[in-house]
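re: ur question from earlier - yeah i can do the single chain one, its not a big deal. heres the input i used so u can compare w yours
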Amino acid sequence: MLRGPETDGHARAVDALRRSYASVPPDSPVRLAKRTSNLFRPRTPNQTPGLDVSGLTGVLGVDPVSRTADVQGMCTYERLVDATLPHGLMPLVVPQLRTITLGGAVTGLGIESTSFRHGLPHESVLEMDVLTGAGEILTIGPDGQHADLFAAFPNSMGSLGYATRLRIELQPIGRHVALRNVRFTDLDALVEAISQVIDTGSWDGRRVDAMDGVMFSPGEAYLILASFTDEPVRASDYTGQDIYYRSLRRRTADALSGYDYLWRWDTDWFWCSRAFGVQHPLVRRLWPARYRRSDVYHRLVRWEHRHGVVGRIDRWRGRPATERVVQDVEVPLAATADFLRWFAGHVPMSPVWLCPLRLRQPAGPGSARDWPLYPLRPDESYVNVGFWGTVPIVDGAADGDVNRAIERAVSDAGGHKSLYSDAYYDRATFDRLYGGAAYRAVKERYDPHHRLTGLYEKAVERR
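and the output i got, formated as tokens:
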């Protein structure tokens, strides 16, 4: 545990959290009192006060020698990056949206372009303090008496507890990031290139520190190969009138500052800001730059979910109802080309994001760690495919049909999907895919009275 005056405030914040937890009636749902959320599942309003996490939003310390940071659970990656970059360091994986929290990325998963080297954010956690369903604060790590909770915490979505402090590993990042935008007209060639970069850590003789991509169509896809550097470069700026994803089609080489690279997708929520007209040149000039952020767009989406104004206008115009299709799925690399071709033929949505992933390999002898609630295979390379938008509900179809078809296609490909959005699995299938037996054992040990809403209830029943 940390020592020093900076921990006094943390201790008070943890006490406030415990008191607020104790004040929730045993038969009432437990939730966090958060101003922002990156979940896309609809939440049923309730009158129960949320848990007081107002004092758990900071960085407790950065150690540039050991390359570690101690961070409170509700600290956003934006705030963490602001603390690490002056030391030339970054978290091993920085999820692409500024207001994702450290605790949220660990209990709910996260991914980004360094994931082909470093896996998922929870794999860089050395230890963490967790408020369990039993109301205890436990310090847990990969070994020891609470190793079962440490292993089951990722993808538990707050159903096993809430992280109050995390100690994570950091890595160097250059002042700039040099980019190569490599175009592919054949998806099988794209997959082969991803495999080569994963195996060698390089492409065309140059080191690759980070890798992601975009598919506009099966005949037009790009790999974005990033190399961290301290060499002076002429950096682009996509926080103004230029839009980052459009640059892939016109630039084979590019450069960004380290800071702008980490948040390159946030300004336009990848490409989803176009739904609000922000990519129209006139609207973009009038829309203040400080509001070109993913959390602002997310608030607009939540407002629409509550009030349904766009849906009413579409009905008035005679347009068909739409189904929300907002998902991130992990597909084995060997099956990625076929899945992308299936997706292009069945889901009218473009572009889609591509982010290669491999579970982190241990530094010394031994096998990769087991994460039972999101059981990716340690010897397998995957590609995260992200797609976010709506599709029309065609005649004879029902809301949810496209999402169910995607779930079947992902399972047929041997993949998984994350649970931050809509899920339609029956309980038996869900248990098979998301470690049901391991989850129940840990749930009974650390939340014996089931005060925290269960994982299936949160992810599928949306209670």
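The domain at 6-173+449-461 is CATH 3.30.465.10 (Uridine Diphospho-n-acetylenolpyruvylglucosamine Reductase; domain 3). not sure if urs matches, ping me
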